[in-house]
Amino acid sequence: MVYNLSFTKGKSAKTTCLQPGQSSLKGSQKIPSWVEASRLLTLCPSSLSWLPCCSLGSSDCPIARLKQTCSEVLPSASTSHSDHSVHLKSASVISSDSISTSADNFSPDLRVLRETNKLAEMEEPPLLPGENIKDMAKDVTYICPFTGAVRGTLTVTNYRLYFKSMERDPPFVLDASLGVISRVEKIGGASSRGENSYGLETVCKDIRNLRFAHKPEGRTRRSIFENLMKYAFPVSNNLPLFAFEYKEVFSENGWKLYDPLLEYRRQGIPNESWRITKINERYELCDTYPSHLVVPANIPDEELKRVASFRSRGRIPVLSWIHPESQATITRCSQPMVGVSGKRSKEDEKYLQAIMDSNAQSHKIFIFDARPSVNAVANKAKGGGYESEDAYQNAELVFLDIHNIHVMRESLRKLKEIVYPNIEETHWLSNLESTHWLEHIKLILAGALRIADKVESGKTSVVVHCSDGWDRTAQLTSLAMLMLDGYYRTMRGFEILVEKEWLSFGHRFQLRIGHGDKNHADADRSPVFLQFIDCVWQMTRQFPTAFEFNEYFLITILDHLYSCLFGTFLCNSEQQRGKENLPKRTVSLWSYINSQLEDFTNPLYVSYSNHVLYPVASMRHLELWVGYYIRWNPRMKPQEPIHNRYKELLAKRAELQKKVEELQREISSRSVSSSERASSPVQCATPVQTVV
């Protein structure tokens, strides 16, 4: 493959394949194979060949390093928080005021190296509070699929995988949080032809594959591999996730952002038809539901228990959102436990009737089952199923044909194959179609649109569920609420939407993402939340002025979905997060985001709080999110980071707004002055002419 790539400079710590100053690879220069890379290391000594080539030990070993020496090559400890925040932006946070100079952070080999070589210090990563170096290997070659092989230093900390090469100007840096790594594999070895190729490949959850070649005689690969396996998968090694070690302090505590009582009060709850119950305060009714639930006012708590026994995992229908005018509602739940015998529950039927009766403007209720009808029927064999229209009077059942987590996982795998590292231009459209990714996005958006339309235009209450009510159900309810309620299109409103519909209602983030777990083939993993964010991005493309947040906001959320830097997306339920005491032991992602809102603000935003959005959910109007899925390809990068341009536009808008206000004051002042002159007695008096 011949590459003709253009590159730009950028501040992001994750510009993994940028080569500033080089406009293209020369002629037919090719990316070296593993064997070629190993030969390069063995036969072509580096200009840094005087550096010791050894297997560095654990970071638990002491280091004697003076603070003054560190300050000569690393950022000053007095660096402002605003400078610090710049580095945090690309899913790999850099805190210059927390760079450790403790003797406990480096191995003896590294200590000797640092004391004799300033360059070694310059290739070390800046460290976060609680972060320390676990291993370091010199003369490692990163096989970049875009710019070719580059030699430098590979460092493993308890938070990140960090590669830096001083051979280029400016230095080439690759920075990936360990949480994003799905699996680590050893590549190569001695072949029958006498060739040696030693390397490591890390497969990442954010589309990337990172490949490194090691010198066979250096024996650094084993040490790096062992430390990666240990610290990239701490849960599998009975170690804490890095979020429990990270102690950065921000100006706002994101854990206090979402208060369910305040959010329900904003919606006008409680009222005559709906009440807030504490029956689940100790998570005894349903261990995957939040402690505060909104239920029909005329259904007592004892009856709720009988309804819970008929719903999968006790996830009864509870209110998510209520229309401020029509009182039509969106309620969510899990499938009924009908089974092959077609069991019924009078309490469950009465409960859905109460939901319908709470809306005086409609005598019908729609039940949206996210699954394909075939899957819903198949679930009867497992004791589940769907609501029979014979049993539920005045109810209409609609299947939305959204596939399960296994289909979505396979679709993302196929998408990754066609977007990384290279795109085959000649068959791009057919290859993209074969992944079915955009087809799944279309079905999710179309389903949410039907729900929003029934509530807004039909003034009809809806019940939404899939099988267990924590995957497709969360996608549908949150997207429908985003279409209906302008509050959720603000930055804080969107954060509350995620906290409410995803976190408090028990989307299984730990299982779906696999935080710190080496079992990459786990059948529970699936890109459910990624699809939701993708759908949100599709809406921002169709309504560029309707959202207060920008694309960078969505990408930052996804990056930290995997990073394990913050506690926001850890665990599977509100109950588990409470047991782990996450608000006290970890930092919230919203703490970081809300401390620098200007970076995530859409300069085109216009607040239309009462407007309902109806996105077009057709393949002609959907597109692949290049800014996320293909962002590692330097050909797809903008000349400057988009969020920097956003900040410039925001500043320009503020400047223009200020001028408008000044002109308005000037016009108002002139108007008042003219009125005063017009009403003045001197001006109004008729001159009297005296005749002598």
Report on the structure:
Substrate binds at residues 379-382, 404-405, 466-472. Residues 670-692 are annotated as: Disordered. Residues 254-629 form the Myotubularin phosphatase domain. This protein is of the alpha+beta class and 692 residues long. The protein has 2 domains: 34-239, Roll (PH-domain like), CATH 2.30.29.30; 254-510 and 521-624, no CATH class. Helix content is 36%, strand content 13%. The longest helix is centred in the C-terminal third of the chain and has 38 residues, at 642-679. Residues 1-103, 191-195 and 684-692 have low confidence and may be disordered.
Number of domains: 2
What's the overall average pLDDT, rounded? 83
Helix count, per DSSP? Answer: 24
Strand order of the largest sheet: 4-3-2-1-7-6-5
* Uncertain stretches: 1-103, 191-195, 684-692
Largest sheet features: 7 strands, antiparallel
Query: Per the principal axes of the C-alpha atoms, what is the gross shape?
Result: globular
Helix content: 25-40%
Structural class determined from secondary elements: alpha+beta
